[in-house]
Amino acid sequence: MKITMIGTGYVGLVSGVCFSDFGHDVICVDMDADKIEQLNRGEVPIFEPGLKPLLERNVSAGRLSFTTDLTAAVDDANAVFIAVGTPTRRGDGHADLSYVMAAAEDVARALTGYAVIVTKSTVPVGTNRKVRQVIAKANPDAEFDVASNPEFLREGAAIEDFMKPDRVVVGVQSDRAAEVMADIYRPLYLRDFPIVTTDLESAEMIKYAANAFLATKITFINEIAALCERVGADVKEVARGIGLDGRIGNKFLHAGPGYGGSCFPKDTSALARIGQEHAVPQMIVETVIRVNETVKSRMIEKLRDLCEGSFNGHTIAVLGVTFKPGTDDMRDAPSLTIVPALVGGGAKVRVVDPQGRREGEALLPGVTWYDDPYKAARDADLLVILTEWNEFRALDLKKLARRMVHPRMADLRNVYSANDARHAGFETFTGVGR
């Protein structure tokens, strides 16, 4: 199959590289000439474990290429995937579809034969039908079908998720489109991974419903954590106890400083907006959004309490600022709320993150970046674990405590126990829900 991938952001690049590893001929297109030059040099603009060697292998095999020439890339393609950004639109919380529709128009003008136009971006219900209208208007003679193929990639484990998915969701309107999509995903069919073929609207809704449900689990356990702190329970034990119930499951039951990232914040917001537009308010999702913001505020107050009620004049070492470990993504990370509150309160903030500095320098002004947590902790008044990178899971707590003026720790990811911290010499320790 010849596949064209429009957009070389996180989803587009990972998907394009993985499709080429299936054996398809893939051309990735982006308007950003600098990014395409970077990719053609073999440099990967995002951090994703395993992506660079996979890219290099398929480029060497002649199955993967990068270009700014959309017209040439679309020519004779069997399928054209649209994988551009759908950020939250200012003012109303809806997904901004301007990039999707612009890409659809460009593809329409470039079509020379039958192709399936596949929306890989996360889009509100009904978007694929609008894409069809845009293409038909821009090129009335075009022969095409549209399909919805939402992604379910976890940053930090995206290649594994693509190659061994829980499921692949494909929304189509015709048997011909279904056959093209089946050919594209044939390697997964042959290995018996579930392929859910459905209508366009159901495919679009599956993506939003899945992310909203996961965000709800996170927010639920964070509310339970707040209650655990008041009644003397341990949220880790509570999560373990309820997670062993097969109807509930143990995933996404880790208390912390709230969810962030590229998907959950914008997808919950968009789903809430879709519900409002159709007079079916998604009250659970709307509450999840509100509670997630209060969780971040509660974390700030935890830290303020450890600083005797004021951040002013305190030196605080923050370990981890990306929204999760295994990625350099800072989008809607809890750190973007918590760290500015520390800086704004007069604290001297030192940040350590294995991959966060590239984006974080612009997003977190007023902080000092360190490569070593022990250096960051020297003469500090408070140590905060904000992202649970593996590098922070086996720290020498005694060494950290000795270097601090006031050995206090706030473990907002529950990596360590209070006993571990106190035995190491920390005079004060707080976790989440413990």
Task: Describe what this molecule looks like in 3D.
The protein is an alpha/beta fold. Helix content is about 45%, strand content about 15%. The protein has 18 helices and 14 strands. The strands form two sheets. The protein has an eight-stranded mixed β-sheet with strand order 3-2-1-4-5-6-7-8, with helices on both faces. The chain is elongated, with a radius of gyration of 23 Å. The model has no long low-confidence stretch (mean pLDDT about 95).
In a few lines, what is going on in this structure?
The chain is an alpha/beta fold. It is 45% helix and 14% strand.
Mean pLDDT: 96
| Strand line-up in the sheet with most strands | 3-2-1-4-5-6-7-8
By secondary-structure content and strand pairing, the structural class works out as alpha/beta
Total number of helical segments? 18
Keywords:
45% helix; 14% strand; six-stranded parallel beta sheet; alpha/beta; single chain; 18 helices; 434 residues
SSE blueprint:
Blueprint: E1 2-6, H1 10-21, E2 25-29, H2 33-40, H3 51-60, E3 64-67, H4 70-74, E4 79-82, H5 98-110, E5 115-119, H6 127-138, E6 144-148, H7 158-163, E7 168-172, H8 175-184, H9 186-190, E8 195-198, H10 200-231, H11 235-243, H12 264-277, H13 283-306, E9 315-319, H14 335-344, E10 348-352, H15 357-363, E11 368-370, H16 373-377, E12 382-385, H17 397-403, E13 408-411, H18 418-424, E14 428-430
Parallel strand pairs: 1-2, 1-4, 2-3, 4-5, 5-6, 7-8, 9-10, 9-12, 10-11, 12-13, 13-14
Antiparallel strand pairs: 6-7
Helix pairs in contact: 1-3, 5-6, 10-12, 10-13, 12-13, 13-14, 17-18
